[in-house]
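Q: My collaborator sent me two sequences in one message, no labels, and asked for predicted structures for both. Can we handle them in order? The first one she listed is below.
A: Yes, handling them in the order given. First sequence, followed by its structure tokens:
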Amino acid sequence: MTEQAKPNTITLDAPIKRGEQEIKEITLRKPAAGELRGTSLNALVNLDVDALGKVLPRISSPTLTEFDVQQLDPADLVQLGVAFASFLLPKRAS
């Protein structure tokens, strides 16, 4: 039997380097409403880079910085954005 990937864990195409540390995977958790402050749902649904830069550091493990988000490979940003957007759907739609 093969091991299933964690549904909210994204394997990065271009790992993030922080000094000696290399981040290859990021796990997102569902945000609480307060963690969406400073952005708009419309911007988040549209995968706005600035909006994602505010929210992803609040819900990622390991914790990303806003700078990390701005430096992501575009393909990785889209993967993280799509995973985040899935949290906005009602349970029966996911």
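Q: And the one she listed second?
A: Here it is, processed independently of the first:
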Amino acid sequence: MNTSPLARRTSRRPALARLACAALAAFAMGAAGVADAAPPLQPIEFSEAVHNLGYIELYVGEHAGIFAKHGLALHLTAAGGDTQAFAAVLGGTAQFAVGDPTMVEMSRERGGPGIVIGTLVQRAHYFGVSKTVNHVITNPKEFKGLTFVTSPDPNTNYSVTKKLMQDAGLKIGTDAKIIEVNPGTEIGAMLAGRADVAVAYQPSVAAAVAQGAKVVFDFSSYMGPFCNTGVMVLPSYAKAHPQVVQELIDSLEEAARLTYSNPAYAKQVARAEFPDVPAAVVNRAIDMELQYKIPAQTIPVEPKQWQNLMAMQTYLGNVKGSVPFDSVIDNSFADKAVKLAGTAAVASK
């Protein structure tokens, strides 16, 4: 059966392509002649949990030369999961990571480091996709009798599925089941008949629909504001390199606004990032991402988003939720980025 292109990737583009993009961006910034050449770009190792269209703003920032404009040269690597992405920051192989920010809460509760300096995905960016369920599910009580496939615990799609089942009074393993597979292979497992419903993200969802599957449950609308994905860094790095952190967050704020103001460009970037997926599928995936307001419209983490994430994770027993919001979340960089953008934060989260 077909599997997601996410499962076939660990690092995305050849080094030469990255260098070419950085060089073109530097030229566009107005480097004219050796005497007036811009200073060299600051290299940044950046770890993403998995390569997916929930992170479209990250890719828009790269393709539009926004990071280069702010003096940064990102080397972006897919880690293979939320735990692995944050582990790259803890281990010093990456300065920044994006993934489930619960990883930072876990670290802090155990006496470790980490702060969240922004959000990249402001709602649960998952959809329930099926070839055997023939109706739209409006209440998790309808999960009864079904088998769902997700990434392994504690990845977010597992956590949200488990909580909704338990909130609905369902006994996991008896009333409804969850099977765990490698991140990015959920759709393949569902298409192979191992589960009734795959809990997946874009562009895997749109690709499955193109193969005859249907979206049967919308996690983003059901759960509301939710800090699904955070930008994570060590406090020691932020203290030692505040200007680098500020330039990164300024770039993400600019990229977020460009993504929503120019969907056609976002689709162009998405098609370049996922060349193995048919263009029509990628375009539909971006339409759905923006329709459901899944990518962050602005980078600061709102208390309600964090509250909903922590409510889920404490309910599941993954964290205690004991670290105060202002201690684990540092919005100072993102707030400055909003002011730099010249308008108030976009309404509507």
